[in-house]
Amino acid sequence: MQQRAIETRQMILEAAAEVFDRDGYSGATIAKIHQRAGVTQGALTFHFRTKLDLAHEVMNAQKNHFSLPPGEDGLQRLIDTTLLLAQELQTNMLLRVGVRLAVDQELIGIHDPTPYQMWVDEFKGQLSAAAARGELREHVDVEELAELLVGIYTGIQLFSQSASRRADLPERLVSFWRYCMGGFVPPHVQAEMTVDADQFTAAV
């Protein structure tokens, strides 16, 4: 794809995300999106045939708009990833909209586990590194735990969205790690982990 076409496609995706964020999927229209992008409707439909195609693309691109926190792969980096995600969901519109669309799939008419599986794979990578470093209990199945953690995270962020528009999401995650980490992490490792809700505030 030529560079200009790539740039146009990206502008359309960003405009679509802004409209979805402001109006929701049901309130968004192709007209609003192409006006926000500053392109003709023909240019938009050249790249994306329908609003549903746009929503699908934005939903599955969410991980492209998030960078992992620094540090070696393992349990601490997984903890830090969940806390950084909490901050980014408040400030990173492209990530936030991708997550919102993934949650709203049933209403939109999409049935695609891809966005969840992307996070499962990322969490599994960190958990696999943690297991290799002796940071997990011996009985832990890292794939099963990764799927469980992604499901738990989804539920916590939805509750937080309803309660405070995610303002309290970092604190809710701290509570999760404090109460639940012992189920899959040995006590001496848990004592070494840092779970700080404020550590990424200045960075976003």
Automatic annotation (TrEMBL):
It comes from the Bacteria. Residues 6-66 form the HTH tetR-type domain. It holds the Pfam family TetR_N. Residues 29-48 bind DNA. One of its GO terms (molecular function) is DNA-binding transcription factor activity. Gene3D superfamilies: Tetracycline Repressor, domain 2 (1.10.357.10). The lineage of its organism: Bacteria, Bacillati, Actinomycetota, Actinomycetes, Kitasatosporales. It comes from Streptomyces daliensis. Keywords: DNA-binding, Transcription, Transcription regulation. InterPro entries: ArpA-like, CprB_TetR_C, DNA-bd_HTH_TetR-type_CS, Homeodomain-like_sf, HTH-type_TetR-like_transc_reg, HTH_TetR, Tet_transcr_reg_TetR-rel_C_sf. This is TetR/AcrR family transcriptional regulator.
